[in-house]
Amino acid sequence: MDINQxxxxxxxxxxxxxxxxxxxxxGDVWLNANEYPVAPQFELTEQTLNRYPEPQPEQVINSYxxxxxxxxxxxxxxxxxxxxxxxxxxxxxxxxQDSILYCPPTYGMYQVSAxxxxxxxxxxxxxxxxxxxxxxxxxxxxxxxxxYVCSPNNPTGNLINPNDIKTLxxxxxxxxxxxxxxxxxxxxxxxxxxxWLASYPHxxxxxxxxxxxxxxxxxxxxxxxxxxxxxxxxxxxxxxxLATPVADIATQxxxxxxxxxxxxxxxxxxxxxxxxxxxxxxxxxxxKVYPSSSNYLCVKFQAGKDVFKTLWNKGIILxxxxxxxxxxxxxxxxxxxxxxxxxxxLALKAII
Length: 352
What we know:
Layout lengths: L8 H4 L7 H4 L5 E2 L27 H11 L6 E4 L1 H13 L6 E4 L6 H9 L2 E4 L10 H5 L5 E7 L11 H11 L4 E5 L21 E6 L12 E5 L1 H8 L9 H10 L2 H26 L4 E4 L6 E6 L5 H7 L2 E2 L1 E2 L1 H4 L4 E5 L3 H14 L1
Parallel strand pairs: 1-11, 3-4, 3-5, 5-6, 6-7
Antiparallel strand pairs: 2-8, 7-8, 9-10, 10-13, 12-13
């Protein structure tokens, strides 16, 4: 029996999202997944593993609502923000009828989730400065139900102009939801749009504990929106999205002490990022280090220098973004520990 004959046609053609772990590599310096470089320490306090967890753990919801300044009814927690990306499509898009829109270069899961569900895709590339092309977006909104915007953007690291986001919200009014992916917002907290929810009923914000909270292995993300959006998502989310140990650790991370620790980590990493950017910029092999409001740097190297492969072979695993950005020799480098960043600089000097 040929099982492939039973697979949905759109899935037969699908290329899975090329996550850092899927791409692989073999080394000791891992700077390809935008993870916080040091593991936090937690102890499990909940032992009721014989029982199903709460569908939406009250302590997690209340703690995160307090942290971001919204009502608990404006939140839903999921298995990372990746699940939330798909939940929105499942709740708001009819397959083969509705579309999503996103603006590359940006996070690849918007495309993969839509392709998996058989939802049409419209892309409007950003302008040369990686800001939104609002005129082009306005011209491509027919049948669009969801507009995904990542800010700070992955992989470029830049914030999207807040006035442009407001204009986009005005353009999309009564037409589509505008989904602002704030996975990296803790590194530029003053740029969050959460406070805009009261003014824009069609605004949705995605958040995660994977980055600044250093809990990528936990898989815990949040959707922040007005109650009608959350009510729709509650209808399509799995019955028990958060395992009991996940909710336990998330609650600890969102305590007053946990948030203070996260903020200290952000300050340390931002200082390390400034130093790393300066060291990279001083190398003749580096053409440009782009400004970053996240926990990674987008770096353009001299053409003809196979920096990615050379460092890969030395056990320094980075993320080649040449294809996604459309320019040769562009690499995204997560900001690691001082020792890891120094190892990158030393390896690059060896190429020179």
